[in-house]
Amino acid sequence: MISNAKMLGYKPNSAARNLRLNRTGAVGFHIQRNASLSSAYMMEFLRGAAEGAHAEDYDLVLLAAGASERLKTSPSVDGIIIADPFSTDPAARTLLDTGITVVSGEACPPGLETAATVRADHEGGLTQILDHLYSRGARSIGLLAAGDHSGWGIEVRRTYNHWAEQHDLTKVIVEIPPVDNRLAYSISAGHEMLRTHPTLDAIITTTVGSAKAIAEFASAAGRQVGADLLLAACLDTGDNESERTITALDVQPHELGRRCAATLISLIVGGSSVPATQLVSTNVRIRPSTLGS
C-alpha cells in the first residue's frame, strides 16, 4: 500500500492529520511590546524559528503583542516561543497561564517559567570581550546592561561582576530599565556614564546601535575611540556597514530561533526527551572600536 501511494504521488493531508491528533499544526511566536520586530537580531531569530517549524511541517504564527489583559480565549496554536522574555511583559504571563507548551529564547527572569529554554552563551562571550579589553590595556570598564526584568541581563551583570572581582577592578554598572525606547535610554545612560566617570577607558553597552551613538558623543568630547576609549556591545545587530566598526557579541539569533522551534515541536509531539536548557555558542566580532584604526 505504501509503495503504491508513493508511486501515485500521494501526500498526507496535514489538515486531516492535525484533526485526528487534535492539533492545529501551528506554533506561535511572541515578542514583548517594546521590542523591534524590524531589528536585524529579531528578524534573524524569526527566520530561524520559521525554518525550524517548516522542517517539522509546522506553520509559525506571529502572536499579537502588547496585550495587558488576560486573553478571552487561548491562541489557536500547539505551542509558543517567547523571544527574550521580560518579567514586566504582561502578555508573556498571560500566555504562560494558558497551559500551552512554551519555550523561551533566552533565559527567563525570576517569576517566569517555561517548559524549556534555548539561550545564548552570554557568559562565555562576555568573558572573551572583557579579556580582550583587558589585553588592550583597559582597567576601568563600565557596563550598560538590562536589569532584573531580563534573564540575559541578569547573566551579563553576573558575569561582569565576577570578572571584575577576579581582576580586582572597580565596577561601574548602569541598568537599563524596560522602557519603550531602550536605545535612546542606553545612549543617554552612556553619555552620563562618560560625564560622571571620565577616567573610564572602556564601555560595554547593550547593542551596536547604542555603542555607535556613544562613540560619536565620545569623539566630540575629545576621546579617541579604539585608543583611549574602547567600546563593545553585548549584542551584535550589525544592521548596516557603519555599525560593523563596533566590537560585539554575535549570539547567533538564527540558530536560537531554529532550535527554539525544533525544541518546542519535540515537546509537542513527545517523540524524544528534550533538555530543560540548551546553550547556543556565541562569537566575538573584534572590530576597530577596540583595536583602533
From TrEMBL:
DNA-binding keyword on record: yes
Highest taxon of the lineage: Bacteria
CDD domains, per the entry: PBP1_LacI_sugar_binding-like
Domain Transcriptional regulator LacI/GalR-like sensor residue range list: 131-290
UniProt KW keywords: DNA-binding, Transcription, Transcription regulation
Pfam family, one: Peripla_BP_3
GO molecular function: DNA-binding transcription factor activity; transcription cis-regulatory region binding
Xref: InterPro entries: LacI/GalR-like_sensor, Peripla_BP_I
Protein name per its UniProtKB record: DNA-binding transcriptional regulator, LacI/PurR family
